Amino acid sequence: MPETILELANVTKTFKGKTAVNDVSFSVERGQITGFLGPNGAGKTTSLRMSLGILTPDRGKVTLFGKKPGPKALDRVGFLPEERGIYRRMKVIDVIVFFARLKGVEAGEAKKRGLKMLDEFELLHAAEQPVKTLSKGMAQKVQIISTLVHQPEFIILDEPFSGLDPVNQKSLERIVRAQADAGRTILFSTHVMEHAERLCDKILLIANGTKIFDGSVKQALGEVPRRIFLETVSEHDLLALLDAYGDVRRDEGGDDAVRCWSLDLAAGADAQDVLKACVDAGVKLTRFEPVRAHLHDAFVHLVESAGGKLTETTDA
Amino acid sequence: MRNIYLIARREFLSYVATWGFWLSLASVPLFMGLGFGLPMLIENSQPTRHYVIVDESGGQLEQALVDGFTRAQEQQIAEIQEAVTEMVGDNPQVQQAMASGMMQQIGDGRYQRIDLGLTDLEALRPYLLEEQAIEIDGEEASLFAAVFLRGSVENGIEVDYWSKNRTDSGLRSSISRALEDYMQEAHLLSGGVSPGLLQAAEALEPEVRELNPERSGADATVTDAERIPFIMGVAVAFALWIIIFSVVNMLLTAMIEEKGNKVLEMMMSATRHYEILTGKLLGVACVSATLLVFWMGLALGGATLVQQAAASADIPVAEIFSALLDPGLLLPALGYFVIGYLMYGAVFLAVGSLCDTIQDAQTLMSPIMLIMMVPLFLVMISADSPDSPIVAIASWVPVWTPFIMLARLPHDPAMIELVGTTLVMLVTAIGVIWGAGAVFRLGSLNQANQETIKGWFSFGKKS
After folding, report:
1. Given CB atoms, is A17 within the 8 Å cutoff of chain B?
2. Which of A226, B24, B292, B346 is the least crowded, having the fewest Cβ atoms under 10 Å away?
3. Among partner residues A15, A84, A99, which is closest to B262 by beta-carbon distance?
4. Are B17 and A54 within 8 A, CB to CB?
């Protein structure tokens, strides 16, 4: 059984009478990449801050490496906050060494590692420059290096892709993957589903401060009805014909000769069986298009099913 | 401890790398230089005022004026000689310089009498109105004033002082004083008082001795050196206020900048908020200690140089340093500095954590600044009246205790006051630092801002 790195048990946190996190429980196991998903204001940042002991929960329990979050445990964690910044007047290498030393790395070793990572991130030329002379993308890379330089076992990234251009997003995805390959446990929050779908072994979905899903990406996709789009040029009534396979709807569009339909497959139903039923009934099909569900669909479906809204609330 | 050290070190190095630090370092010698040099510069930059005297009394009053000015100049020279002797002792080089005629340059040389050969006001008017220039040593100048003297001691003296200048009253006052002395003296002489008696009367002055009832005999006389500890107490209290005030402002601006850089949450994932708070306070304390050591070294060096330049100097340098380094003043001063700095520093850091800009901070700073200004006035009162009830009561206000008690220490306040005020101050300091830590934590995570604080003080107000 894999070791549990982080565990939140029935955790609740309220600010000025507003519940930001309500009775949330989840765990992160060693070696996994866990995506922490949810709309803006869902309670992701509050949960992450409680995970590190930056905030104390009103109720419930948080354990990090099996203990209450404390200085020893923090040395084993790398955290990139959503609201991130670094000392603008300091030199790039000095910033990296400073954060490494706060995490217990010796000065010489910190500098050696910092220079190596700057080289890997193609920033070695900027090592002696003040941070304020760097572009935004370069500064974000320096922040990521500062988060990783002490070689943490557990990496927490709060909205790491926000503010990055597509090239740097791709580059960050590679970094996350490389860290996971090196055996690190990663928990990152995002509301960009594509990254989570590509990277995560497991996802946690939170909305309005309440956990609404905890499982693998495959399981999440399983929560979304698979959909088939059909277009027919015969007079058959698919509402009756395909009723046994799921929820059939007559869609707008088409013309007098072409009729458009969509079918949300019921659990256990198979697209091949639907096709066979149409052929057997002599339906003249001009389109039969099963659509693969994406995590975005699962996200929208799960949030809406839980009665949540995808509009911004407050920054929690 | 590791993180506190690292944060303090970073803070220290970041301040030392700024221009502001080096300007602060240079500010004291710079201001001292300005303090000495500026009055001289102002004095030297004053234009020479040229005036004419028209004596309609037949020369008697003009002579009285000349005599009066000469006496005033001699008196001024004598006062300067006395002051110089008091400062540098009977240094032969200085005495020689004074005797060489250098002192004759001293006096109110700004006003120079000239003779245009004109005695009629209408003839002088174009010069007074600057329609016509006068010539002095081949250069053009303007006529500052024309003074018409008439009458006599018996019948009254009248002076018509004609000038366009309404603000420079130096010449008018000198004339008035000189003629007043002349009139009084002439009056006494005409009443039968002999010149010798008059001179003897002017030289009369009482001998006042200050004696300490705790001693007797010759030892009872109070010397100037004995007053030094009281002066030093007030001086150290003011110095403490200035240092704390300037250092906590550094903390505030740095904190706001750090919050603007959004670096705090990154820090809080690596260390705890109280470690950040403590590290920052210590780092800036080291900055102020560096400034203090440099300034004290400079003062010590300066004093030594003065001592060497005037071997027989009368400056009580030994007494000053003895008073300053007296453990009875030095140790409490250190303790009050640490506690006062921690109290105010923690509050300023907390305020900084709540604000995104200096403008935000100003709203919260106004009441704190008012509270900080009060001890300045109380220290001044305590210099003269250390036993004043207002000073005694204010000593118990913890945020004022460090400054007022320091000024009162040389007056030997009651032990109950000393211990009591210190205890109240310590307990308050702990409470303030704890509270500031909590606010700092909320402010750093953007869970509180200046509006939150305003809300705390708006009890009962309708929203």
Report:
1. no
2. B292
3. A84
4. no
Over residues B9-52, the pLDDT tens digits come to 888 888 887 777 788 778 777 877 777 677 777 767 778 889 99
Q: Of A102, A133, A148, which residue sits at a domain end?
A: A148
Which of B 225-254 lie inside 8 A of A, CB atoms? Answer: none
Q: Is the pLDDT reported for residue B460 higher than 60?
A: no
Which residues of A are less than 8 Å from B254 in CB distance? none
Q: Which of A131, A148, A165 is the last residue of a domain?
A: A148
Q: Which residue of A has its CA nearest to B259?
A: A85
Say if residue A24 is in the same domain as residue A1: yes
- pLDDT tens digits for range B341-374: 888 888 888 877 777 777 777 777 778 888 888 8
Is residue A164 domain-shared with residue A313, that is, in the same domain?
yes
Residue A170 lies in a domain: yes
> How sure is the predictor about B192, in pLDDT bands with cuts at 50, 70 and 90?
confident
Chain A nearest-CA residue for B267: A99
- Could you tell me if A93 and A143 lie in one domain? yes
Instruction: Report the complex ipTM.
Output: 0.71
Which one of A79, A87, A90, A157 would you mutate to disrupt binding with B, by most B Cβ within 10 Å of its Cβ?
A87
Same domain as A68, residue A6: yes
User: How many independent structural domains does chain A possess?
Assistant: 3
Chain A residues near residue B14 by CB distance under 8 angstroms: 87, 89-90
Do the chains contact at A86 and B261, CB–CB below 8 Å?
yes
Q: Which of chain A's residues have a Cβ under 8 Å away from the Cβ of B261?
A: 85-88
Shared domain check, A94 and A60: no
Map chain A to HEC letters.
Answer: CCCEEEEEEEEEEEECCEEEEEEEEEEEECCCEEEEECCCCCCHHHHHHHHCCCCCCCEEEEEECCECCCHHHHCCEEEECCCCCCCCCCEHHHHHHHHHHHCCCCHHHHHHHHHHHHHHCCCHHHCCCEHHHCCHHHHHHHHHHHHHCCCCCEEEEECCCCCCCHHHHHHHHHHHHHHHHCCCEEEEEECCHHHHHHHCCEEEEEECCEEEEEEEHHHHHHCCCCEEEEEECCCCCHHHHCHHHEEEEECCCCCCCCEEEEEEECCCCCHHHHHHHHHHCCCCEEEEEEECCCHHHHHHHHHHHCCCCCCCCCCC
Phi/psi at A41 (nearest 5 deg)?
80, 15
| A81 in a structural domain | no
Q: Which residues of B fall within a CB distance of 8 Å from A156?
A: 269
Q: Which residues of A touch B266 (CB under 8 A)?
A: 79-81, 84-86, 99, 143, 146
Count chain A–chain B contacts defined by CB atoms under 8 A.
62
Cβ of B262 within 8 Å of Cβ of A83? The answer is yes
Neighboring chain B residues of A74 at a CB cutoff of 8 Å:
269-271
